[in-house]
Structure formats: structure tokens, C-alpha cells
Design goal:
Elements (H helix, E strand, L loop, with lengths): L1 E5 L5 H4 E5 L9 E10 L2 H8 L15 E5 L5 E4 L11 E5 L4 E2 L6 H5 L3 H13 L7 E5 L4 H12 L3 E6 L2 H10 L3 E4 L5 H8 L5 E6 L4 H6 L3 E9 L12 H7 L2 E4 L3 H6 L1 H16 L7 E6 L3 H10 L5 E5 L6
Parallel strand pairs: 8-9, 8-11, 9-10, 11-12, 12-13, 14-15
Antiparallel strand pairs: 1-2, 3-4, 3-6, 3-15, 4-5, 5-7
Length: about 325
């Protein structure tokens, strides 16, 4: 079979190599899956760079989530067992963690529903307790993680303010349903949020960026607001001023979705059931901006690494638009 392999750490476009290799063999409790679609995530870039919290032994195949097909023909969502990730024709995954692919979504959309939307749902509902009528501020609103949070925020009845970089991404964020879009390159985020909320600020901030995005967020957070720390796509990990959190009376909460797989797998399945219902209703639909053939996977991962992509880029090993 074909698989993208990383033999040394570095930039994805430089270290990912497409090779012929043997199919992985399932271990106890695992199943072999044919990959129908593999969604590209920012952690795939971090894996290539050797900067992810999990560092599989070299060589490895990146690709942390897929829509695949079991040997008996079931269409499922899975997180492949590293070091044999999803940018391959076949993967193995833990059978107990397989989730049925929603009928309302095609393979590429289904592959993009898993980690990003689960992260958004747990972040907004389990960690931030977002309520209808509140104001949600989403950074990188046109990206894969941010676009999921925008849709989930609207589904929860929140007023959603999206922050993006550039007019092209601003148009995408508006199309996703943002009530207000702020272009961080040309607008003052803090002033715009305060103006839109009559000085109150955002009740919930969803931050997958870190760095300056976090610094701006805590300047326009509302009384009893909640900042959900999802990631650090900017490459800069902020150092929160706890004295500031004290005097402004806001909460800083972290969200590492992967922990729920081991700590509370029943909650993951319940979340998937809810996401499946929302997909069937047309309330959420992953924004798939590109569907790439296998040969272009490294280019796609590099674009996500560089922050130039919008929505989700999905790799289709068979080369078709499934």
C-alpha cells in the first residue's frame, strides 16, 4: 500500500515522503480499516516537526483522524493508532473507539467532524457552559477548529463574533454564520468587541491561537467570562496574569479533547450522537475547502502548518471526491 512516512523531523513539505509499505497488522482489540478520507489537522504538522505532545518513533505516518471502511463494509470515524497514521491506504484503530460516520455527510465531511467538532462541543459546553443569548468570540474563525466552534456556537443560540486574518477569510466567516467578523489585520479586536457588546465584552472566548489572540481576549472578556484555551497555532504560548483574572473575575479553562477518550469515553460517544443529530438537521456541516489526492498530502499539511488554509483540507487516498 501507499503511505506518507516521516523519517526525520522538520517542515511537512520537506520530511513527508510517499512510499510503498506493508499494510499494518491489527493487534488485540484493533481492526484494519481502508482509508476513505483523512482530514488534515494542525497536530499533523506538529507531529512532523516533533513538537506534538505525542512523539511516535521514526519513521511514522501522520494523520490523526479518518473516515474509513471496515472489512464488513461499515463506514466509521477513527483516530488511527500511531505510528501508522491516516495518510495511507490502510490503518489500524481500536475497535472500541470506532464511531459510525453520519449518513448526512460524505466521506470528506465525516472525516472532518470528529476531533475539531468534538473539541468545540466539549470546549463550549462541558468547559465553558455556553448559554443561549451569550456572546462567543472565536479566534481563527475561518479555520478548521474555529469554523466548527462558530457553527456549534450558533447552534447553541449564542451571538458569535469571529476573528480572522484578511478579507478572504472574513467572507468565509460570514458565510459560516458569524454575527460580526473582525479582521485582526485592519481592525482593533478589543475596541470592536466592546462596541458590539455595549462595553460588556465577550462571555466566552474560544482560542486555538494563543499569543496575541489570548492577550487581546482578556482585555475584552466580560464579567464572569470564560476563556477556553484550545491550542497555540501562533506558536506562542501565553503566560496568563492570574492577578488580572482575579480583578476582572473571569475563568481560564483548558481543553485537551484526547483525555476524554481515556477518562470518559461514554461522553465522547454521547457527543458524537449529538453531532450526528446536528449534521442530520443541517445545523453543522464541516467546511471542506479542498479535497486532495494522496500525492498532494504533504502540500496540504504544509498549508495547514503555515496558516494559509481555510476550513478543512482532506486527503482522499483513492483520488475520488467521495
Amino acid at each position: 500500500m501507499q503511505a506518507w512516512r516521516v523519517h526525520r523531523n522538520g517542515e511537512p513539505s520537506e520530511v513527508m515522503e510517499l512510499e510503498e509499505t506493508d499494510r499494518p497488522s491489527p493487534g488485540p482489540g484493533q481492526v484494519l480499516l481502508e482509508v476513505r478520507a483523512a482530514n488534515i489537522n494542525f497536530p499533523d504538522a506538529l507531529l512532523c516537526r516533533g513538537q506534538y505532545q505525542v512523539r511516535p518513533p521514526l519513521p511514522f505516518t501522520p494523520g490523526v483522524e479518518i473516515c474509513g471502511e471496515t472489512e464488513d463494509g461499515r463506514r466509521v470515524l477513527a483516530t488511527p493508532a500511531l505510528p501508522n497514521g491516516g495518510f495511507a491506504d490502510y490503518v489500524v484503530a481500536d475497535e472500541a473507539a470506532l464511531l459510525p460516520a453520519p449518513d448526512a455527510l460524505d466521506d470528506a465531511e465525516a472525516a472532518a467532524l470528529h476531533i475539531g467538532y468534538q473539541t468545540g462541543w466539549f470546549g463550549l459546553h462541558r468547559r465553558a457552559h455556553l448559554r443561549a443569548g451569550e456572546t462567543l468570540l472565536v479566534h481563527a474563525a475561518a479555520g478548521g477548529v474555529g469554523s466548527a466552534a462558530v457553527q456549534l456556537g450558533k447552534a447553541a443560540g449564542a451571538t458569535v463574533i469571529g476573528v480572522v486574518g484578511g478579507p478572504e477569510k472574513a467572507a468565509i466567516a460570514r458565510g459560516l454564520g458569524c454575527d460580526l467578523v473582525i479582521d485582526r489585520r485592519s481592525e482593533d479586536i478589543v475596541a470592536a468587541v466592546k462596541e458590539a457588546t455595549a462595553g460588556r465584552g465577550a462571555d466566552v472566548v474560544y482560542d486555538p491561537v494563543g499569543g496575541d489572540a489570548y492577550a487581546k481576549s482578556v482585555k475584552c472578556i466580560a464579567f464572569e467570562g470564560r476563556v477556553v484555551v484550545v491550542g497555540f497555532a501562533s506558536g506562542s504560548i501565553p503566560t496568563p496574569g492570574l492577578n488580572h483574572a482575579l480583578v476582572k473575575n473571569y475563568s481560564i479553562v483548558g481543553l485537551h479533547w484526547g483525555l476524554y477518550n481515556t477518562k470518559d469515553p461514554a461522553a465522547v460517544r454521547a457527543c458524537h450522537d449529538e453531532l450526528t443529530k446536528l449534521a442530520a438537521q443541517g445545523v453543522v456541516k464541516p467546511l471542506v475547502s479542498e479535497r486532495l489526492p494522496m500525492a498532494e498530502a504533504a502540500r496540504g499539511v504544509q498549508r495547514v502548518a503555515d496558516g494559509t488554509s481555510t476550513g478543512r483540507i482532506v486527503v482522499l487516498p483513492a483520488g475520488g471526491a467521495r
